[in-house]
Amino acid sequence: MVASLSLLLPIYYAPLFFNIIGVAVRCWVVMFLLSKRLDMYSIYARFMIGAFLIFMPHLEEVHANITNAHWYLSMLLFMVLIAKKPTTLSGKIHDVIVLIIAGFSGPFIVFMTPLLALKLVSNASGEGIIDKALNAIKKIDLF
What we know:
The protein has a domain at 2-84. The protein has helices at residues 2-6, 14-33, 43-55, 69-82, 89-105, 108-123, 129-138. It has seven helices and no strands. The longest helix has 20 residues, at 14-33. By secondary structure, it is mostly helical.
């Protein structure tokens, strides 16, 4: 997607555009990590994780590029799945955009499916695992 968009720019701006998108994806993860949707976790812990993601020590290669964006998109999708449900339309649109972009960027979407199933079952009403699973299936939404 980024390569397709870079065709709209002069060719000498393409590497800069790729790097800007790579850095933006990394910042997107940290911004969501520090958002109110994850405020059930300590702000200190979230800040430390965010600082680690930004400054990541002992890397022999640069991770703030578009080639490694799929790793950060998988972390973002994981955070969306464990976060509180969005209450606004923009929050719901954000989650769908994350799902689509992360889903197309790598195979990590396959590993997030069991996590989503566990979240749906654990949040469902009912007694016993079978009752909870049936209620979770009834409440499956578009996401």
